[in-house]
Amino acid sequence: MILFQLKCEHDHEFEGWFKDGATYDAQAASGDLSCPVCGTSSVGKALMAPRLRTSRQKEEAAEKQRQKAVADATKAAIAEIRKQVETNCEHVGNKFAEEARKIHYGEAEKRGIYGQASLKETAELVDEGIDVHALPWDDETKKN
Predict the structure, then answer these.
(1) What pLDDT does residue 144 have?
(2) What is the four-CA torsion angle of 4, 5, 8, 9, rounded to 10 degrees?
(3) pLDDT of amino acid 34
(4) What is the distance between the alpha carbons of residues 144 and 95, in angstroms, rounded to a whole number?
(5) What is the pLDDT averaged over residues 97-123?
(6) Per-residue DSSP letters for 33-53?
(7) CB atoms closer than 10 angstroms to residue 8
(8) How confident is the model at residue 91, as a pLDDT?
């Protein structure tokens, strides 16, 4: 698609979208174009400025690029955290709250663990002074 600024013999200016330049030429030659203001079919191309990217558009594009870079870096950092946790800690599944209490109160060997806990269980652990952290795990696994 191409946009042309058009002008009739009475100096009314308007825009017209065309498939390509040849389509405009064919419609203009056949008299199919008319001014939406006065209806005359004596229509031609008007001078038009090229669409240049403004500094605001450049700033917006740069901001979008920056946001994407931050999102990509965050995703990479989360993947690294996950890798470290899975490598160095024991997965205890749904028994996370129970096992965290045992470790805290000295009933089980001290070690790093990860698994699932409900919001209520997590709040109770925090209230008991047990140091726990929610991790931004990948949605596919739902392991946190």
Answers:
(1) 43
(2) -110
(3) 92
(4) 12
(5) 95
(6) ---TTT--S-EEEPP----PP
(7) 21
(8) 96
pLDDT tens, position by position, 49-97: 666 667 788 888 888 998 999 898 889 999 999 999 999 999 999 999 9
pTM: 0.51
Residues 6+ apart with CB under 8 A from 28: 43, 44
Calculated CA dihedral for residues 90, 93, 95, 96, nearest 10 degrees: 60
Q: How far is CA 22 from CA 29, 31, 51, 66, in A?
A: 10, 14, 21, 41
Residue of 13, 10, 41, 47 whose CA lies nearest to 28:
41
**Residue 142: in which H helix or E strand, if any?**
none
Q: Are 135 and 82 in contact (CB under 8 A)?
A: yes
Q: Looking at the chain, which runs of residues are DSSP E strands?
A: 2-8, 13-18, 43-45, 90-93, 113-115
